[in-house]
Write a structure and sequence with these properties.
The structure is a single chain. By secondary structure, this protein is an alpha/beta fold. It folds into two domains: about 100 residues, Rossmann fold, CATH 3.40.50; about 30 residues, no CATH class. It contains seven helices and five strands, in the order βαβααβαβαβαα. It is elongated and about 65 Å long.
């Protein structure tokens, strides 16, 4: 499939402070034509027709009424993360747009960190590390 044939997905940016991580962008490129917010804002008329999806990474881009009104072919908003509290689901659904998320994507890493913190606390690893390097 040519790049032009792939459905467009709007993302804030790639890399940087708030952009989608490079490895995630590489995965998205296999199935979508990535359109950054900057590209969209520079050429709204053309880009708005190409965007079928928005990929929300770390609560960005912000989904508001103005954005939704400017995307006539938008079908789905994919949220990278568990919660969707930052999204106005009622407003989004009024545009006929579906919302998805990744509820189990971070379950194992979260459990791993929890166990590591409990073990570190029980074994006083942080205190031991400070004593090890203070002398």
């Amino acid at each position: 499939m040519a790049k032009e044939e792939l459905p467009g997905v709007l993302i804030l940016d790639i890399g940087g402070t708030h952009g989608v991580l490079e490895n995630i962008a590489a995965l998205l490129r296999k199935h979508f034509h990535l359109i950054t917010m900057k590209e969209f804002l520079e050429n709204k008329e053309e880009m708005s027709k190409k965007i079928a999806s928005i990929f929300v990474f770390e609560c960005r881009p912000t989904i508001d009424r103005e954005l939704l009104e400017s995307l006539p072919n938008l079908k789905v908003i994919g949220n990278s993360g568990v919660g969707v509290d930052h999204l106005d689901l009622k407003m989004i659904s009024s545009f006929g747009v579906k919302v998805t998320n990744t509820p189990h994507a971070v379950a194992d890493p979260t459990a791993d960190i929890g166990m590591a913190l409990m073990l570190a606390s029980a074994r006083r690893l942080v205190e031991g590390n400070v004593l090890n390097f203070s002398g």
